[in-house]
Amino acid sequence: MSGFETRFRAEDDADQIRAAFYGFIGAHIGDVDGDAHISTEIDTQGPKLRVRLWSAEAMDAFLRGLYPTGRPDRRACYE
């Protein structure tokens, strides 16, 4: 799978993130050019919501829509 992904922690609003993801995909259905996935992961640090989109531009647009003012830095590295 190729694409760009980010993860959200348990304290983030999972319902809001899911709604934003499906709304974004619906609004950009003609632009989808690759993977678009949302999933839940559980590891030793707890649950995380993973979002994967087809391009850096798509991810940037998704995050701008999710956080229209004061977007947090989502460039954390997850291994």
Describe the structure.
With 79 residues, the chain is of the alpha+beta class. It has two helices and three strands, in the order E-H-E-E-H. It has a three-stranded antiparallel sheet with strand order 1-3-2. A hairpin with a 2-residue loop joins strand 2 and strand 3 (46-53). It is globular and about 35 Å long. The chain starts with a strand and ends in a 13-residue tail after the last helix.
Q: Can you give keywords for this protein?
A:
79 residues, Alpha-Beta Plaits, 2 helices, 3 strands, 27% strand, globular
Shape: globular
Sketch the major β-sheet: 3 strands, antiparallel
Low-confidence stretches: none
CATH third-level topology:
Alpha-Beta Plaits
Helix content: 25-40%
CATH class: Alpha Beta
Strands, total number: 3
CATH architecture: 2-Layer Sandwich
Class per helix and strand makeup: alpha+beta
* Helical segment count: 2
Short characterization:
The protein has one domain: Alpha-Beta Plaits (2-Layer Sandwich), CATH 3.30.70. It is α+β, with helices and mostly antiparallel strands.
Topology diagram in text:
Elements: E1 4-9, H1 14-27, E2 37-43, E3 46-53, H2 56-66
Antiparallel strand pairs: 1-3, 2-3
